[in-house]
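Support request, please re-run this one:
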Amino acid sequence: MIRLAKKDDIIKIQAIYKDGRELIASYGSPQWQNNYPSLEVTLSDIEKNALYVLGSDEILGVMTVLDYESTYDVIEGQWLSDRPYKVIHRIATKKGHYGKGISAQLIEYVFTHLNCNSLRIDTHELNVPMQNLLKKLDFTYCGKIYLNQATDRMRLAYQKDI
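Re-run finished. Output below.
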């Protein structure tokens, strides 16, 4: 079951983000380090009705879904289309459940339940597991985007239209 996150879920969500930080750090990526996503970011996502969780009693995966991302306005490359799109950020799976299709279920949910025909997502160049998942789900690599932060700004950008 996938549903909108509630404030009562915050401890479980933050634990999954911690798992994600550890996994990402294990393959040398600086992405998500320095306690990102923070409690403040998570609460904001919940308040905006943008944070989704997979699971009922036990939460196995999380993602934030937005309708727009300003850093996607400029790309070194080309998006598949200029259609209205949704964006997935902060997608993560609970430790012990990697490789079981949790992230794939979350991504597919956006297409099947959130009235989405075009989906964009970005990831760090060292996040090979996410790149492989996106290829498996028929996303197309479109180019590079740059985040609004001081360091480690470049991300690989992907899009899938249906």
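The chain has one domain: 2-161. DSSP finds four helices and eight strands in the chain.
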